Amino acid sequence: MLFVFFFLSSGVFLNMGGSTVVPSELRITTIKQEPYATTKGTQLEGFCMDLLSEIANKVGFRYKVQLVKDNSYGRQDESGNWNGMIGEVVRGEADLAIAPLTLTAARERAVGMTKPFMQTGISILLRKDISEGAGLFDFLSPFALETWIGVLAAYLGTAACIYIAARLSPCEWSQAQSDKHRFSFLYSLWYTAGALTLQGAGHHPKALSGRVICCSWWLFSIVLMACYFSNLNLSKTPESSRLTVKGFEDLASQDRIEYGCLASSSTLAFFKNSNNPLYRRIYENMERTNSFVSSMDEGIRRAKEGNFAFIGESVSLDLAVARHCELVRAHEVIGMRGYSIAAALGSPIIKNLSVAILQLNEAGELAYLRSKWWASSCISAKAKPSALQPHSLKGMFLVLSLGLGLGTLVAVLELTIKSRRKAAEQQKSCCSVLTEELRLRLRNGDVNKPQENVDKEKA
C-alpha cells in the first residue's frame, strides 16, 4: 500500500515538474519605439503589441504591459550586471520582454530567448540624391533602344508613305506630265519631322489619302511625346540603382560621405568584433572620426541632411525609408540576426512562446503584421520607372501601321477612279491607263524635267 502511494506521489511530482504551467497574468516589459510600441492615448499599440496579443491567445495567458524604466534594451556592464529590459527580466521585475531585441550570445547566456519573430541585418541608410553625375545621353533613357529603333522605323515609313500617297493620288498631283510635285522624299522627311516635334512644316497634304496618313502620324506623335516627357521626368528621380554607395565595399573605399552607427549597439559590436578586414576598416574609421550617433532619430536626421550614411539594422532602416521619402536603403544586408522575446533563464514558457511564433509565421500572420506597420507613404516614389519597351507602345504602333496602310490604299483607289474615268474618255482599257499613270508617277528621276525642257525650247 505504501509502495502504491509512493509511486502515485512520484508520478504527480514528475508530472508537475515537466508541465509548462503559465502564470495567470504575466508582467511584460517593452520599450517605446515606432512601430513596435507607440503610445495612443493611454494605450500602447504597434507591431509588438499585436504580436503579443496573438501569442497570448495561442498560449493562453493574460498580461500587463509596462515600459522599461531606463529606456534601454539591455547591455552588460563591466561588473556583469544588465540594464534595460534584459536587466528587468534577470532581476525578476518582468516575466517577458517583447521588443526588437536582437538575439545575441551574451543575452542568450543571461536570459532565455525564443525563436526569432523577425529577421534583420545590417545595412546602410542615406539620401537618394547622393548619386552619380548625369550621363551625356541620359535624355535617351525614357525609351529602350528597341523603342528608339521602332520610332526611327516609324518615322521613315511614314515619310515614305506620304511620298508615295502624294505621288499616287490625283487629288494631290493631278497631272504627272506637267504639274510640279511638291511632296518630294526630302520634303516628306522634313514634313514628318515637323509633325513629330508638334511644330508642323510647310504645305499640308490636300488629298484624303495624305490626310489619313498625317492624322495617324500626329496621333502617334502626341502619345509618343507624352510618354517621353512623363518618363523623362520620373527618371530624373535618383534611386538606389544610381547610388555611388551601393554596399559596404563602396562605403569603405570613399571619403566623401561620412558614416556611423548607433553607439553601444549590437551593430557597433558586429564591426568591432569582426575579423573581416573590410568590416574592421569601417569600424576603425567610425572610431577615428567619432561618427557615432546617440539615437536612431539622430542617425535618420543626419542622413536626411546629406553626406552622411547611417549604418543600422535593415528593418529599422526600412521603416525610415517608408516614413521619409528622401531616404533610401542600400540593397546589401550583412550580419543576419533575429529579434526574439526574452524570458527568465530556464522559464518553462519559452517553449510555448517559440511554438506560437512558428505557428504565426507558418500562417502568414507575421508577414501581415510586417506589412501593416511598415506601410509606406512613398509608394509613388519607390519604384524607378524602367525604360519603355516597344511592347508598351505596341497599340500606337499598330494604329500608325493601320493608318499608313489605309492612306496608301485610299491613294491607290483615288488613282484607280481617275484612271477609269480617263479610260472611258479615251476609250482605252482601265488597266493600260492605270499602268501608264503609275509609270509616270513612280518612275525614277524628275518627272518635271521634260516639261521644263519644253518650256525652254519655246522660250
> How far apart, in Å, are the first and last alpha carbons?
149 Å
Instruction: Give helix % range.
Output: 40-55%
> What count of domains describes the coordinates?
3
Looking at CATH, which topology of the largest domain would you report? Answer: D-Maltodextrin-Binding Protein, domain 2
SSE class: alpha/beta
The total strand number stands at 11
Give the averaged pLDDT, no decimals.
80
CATH architecture title of the largest domain = 3-Layer(aba) Sandwich
CATH class of the largest domain: Alpha Beta
Specify the biggest β-sheet.
9 strands, mixed
> CATH superfamily membership of the largest domain, which one?
Periplasmic binding protein-like II
Membrane topology: Multi-pass membrane protein
Binding site for L-glutamate: 100, 102, 107, 266-267, 313
Pfam family, one: Lig_chan
Main location: membrane
Short description:
The chain has 459 residues and is of the alpha/beta class. It is 51% helix and 13% strand.
Entry keywords:
459 residues; alpha/beta; D-Maltodextrin-Binding Protein, domain 2; Helix Hairpins; nine-stranded mixed sheet; two-stranded antiparallel sheet; 18 helices; disordered N terminus
General description of the model:
Strands 1, 4, 5, 6, 7, 8, 9, 10 and 11 form a 9-stranded mixed sheet that branches. A two-stranded antiparallel sheet has the order 2-3. Helix 2 (47-59) packs across helix 13 (349-362), helix 5 (145-168) runs antiparallel to helix 7 and helix 16 (394-426) crosses helix 17. The protein has helices spanning 2-18, 47-59, 84-90, 105-110, 145-168, 185-196, 208-235, 248-252, 266-273, 277-289, 296-305, 314-323, 349-362, 365-373, 379-382, 394-426, 430-442, 449-458, and strands spanning 25-30, 38-40, 43-45, 62-67, 96-102, 112-113, 118-127, 258-261, 308-313, 327-329, 334-343. Strand 2 (38-40) and strand 3 form a beta hairpin. The longest helix is centred in the C-terminal third of the chain and has 33 residues, at 394-426. Helix content is 51%, strand content 13%. It has 3 domains: 23-117 and 340-378, Periplasmic binding protein-like II (D-Maltodextrin-Binding Protein, domain 2); 122-131 and 241-337, Periplasmic binding protein-like II (D-Maltodextrin-Binding Protein, domain 2, 3-Layer(aba) Sandwich); 138-236, Helix Hairpins (Orthogonal Bundle), CATH 1.10.287. Residues 1-20, 237-243, 380-385 and 444-459 have low confidence and may be disordered. The termini are far apart. With 459 residues, the protein is of the alpha/beta class. It is built from 18 helices and 11 strands.
